[in-house]
């Protein structure tokens, strides 16, 4: 394996897969978070919520111009959904997501990650395109569409992990995972940045769903053209790169049927620790991801254009931090300064406790909107360390 300078090792077919996965996750998260911004423009003020609006305005005073902007934004809303209905719509995606995580992993093992990941993204694209029609039909239809989107997206992460186990040798997994999942942050940044602007164009809020849904469908064409389940199935991979990959990943025995050792899994301390860490980290991360645009508009009173840009900033910070951090951790590992276990533990601590402290400081910041945004940037940004921590442990 002394051919580290070979062009096939510097940029090979595994890197093409990484790029495709990156772009796929960019689409997945674009279609996941677009509703967070769009719903602000979709909903008009509820006739029975005036007292609550006054109370919130007393908490965070607003200027006369801000009040006028807020009133005009509310008048443009198309749907008379109260906060309970909005919460159900925003949360419905995750009910569907929960249903198919395990199924996605098992299907990817049986049918291949290429099919499952590709189907997950493209079907989500189709469902996203028809979302405006569902919303205009009824809130129930919209909730059903969002549940189905959660189900189709729920298979993508497990399928990606299966594909990485075939394609990415262990010494490259931390930085490769950070680069792949960086698509989540880029998709979030782009979507949050331009969705506020799109809602104010002549195309209105439906364009937020249609544009990103079409992206998911277009991505699927390239995925099925250039992605393969394993190096053995790739028709043009070089022998040098194939040997390099298989030297690290070993031989996979796909045809061997093994029973799932459920008792051993659920009595495994490392498994339970990873689950606990992931639940804690995701609790804060997805609360922010889902509710941030609504919070910035209703509590901090930023207008739609400001809202989108400020909502995107934490995820840009997260992406940049994850790239720098993962590269540095790989350097420490190669130099023998830290072991793999130490890097996993340190990274998980950073990704859990710094966000925790930052979120606890937000109530203290009160109505200082810019300080709140800084704290959210720190909270979300340092979450990027998790790609060198518990996320690697999944594989």
TrEMBL record:
Localization of this protein: Basolateral cell membrane; Cytoplasmic vesicle, Secretory vesicle membrane; Cytoplasmic vesicle, Secretory vesicle, Synaptic vesicle membrane; Lysosome membrane
Source species, domain of life: Eukaryota
One GO MF term attached to the UniProt entry: symporter activity
Keyword Membrane (UniProt): yes
One of the GO BP terms on file: monoatomic anion transport
Keywords from the named record: Cell membrane, Cytoplasmic vesicle, Glycoprotein, Lysosome, Membrane, Symport, Synapse, Transmembrane, Transmembrane helix, Transport
InterPro entries referenced in this protein's UniProt entry, alphabetically: MFS, MFS_dom, MFS_Na/Anion_cotransporter, MFS_trans_sf
Membrane topology label: Multi-pass membrane protein
Transmembrane stretches, start-end: 16-43, 115-135, 180-198, 204-228, 262-286, 306-325, 346-365, 371-394
Catalytic activity: N-acetylneuraminate(in) + H(+)(in) = N-acetylneuraminate(out) + H(+)(out); 2 nitrate(out) + H(+)(out) = 2 nitrate(in) + H(+)(in); D-glucuronate(out) + H(+)(out) = D-glucuronate(in) + H(+)(in); L-aspartate(out) = L-aspartate(in)
PROSITE patterns: MFS (PS50850)
SUPFAM superfamilies noted in UniProt: MFS general substrate transporter (SSF103473)
Domain Major facilitator superfamily (MFS) profile stretches: 20-395
GO cellular component, as recorded: basolateral plasma membrane; lysosomal membrane; synaptic vesicle membrane
Matches recorded under Gene3D superfamilies: MFS general substrate transporter like domains
Functional description taken from the UniProt entry: Receptor for CM101, a polysaccharide produced by group B Streptococcus with antipathoangiogenic properties.
Official protein name in the record: Sialin
Organism: Cherax quadricarinatus
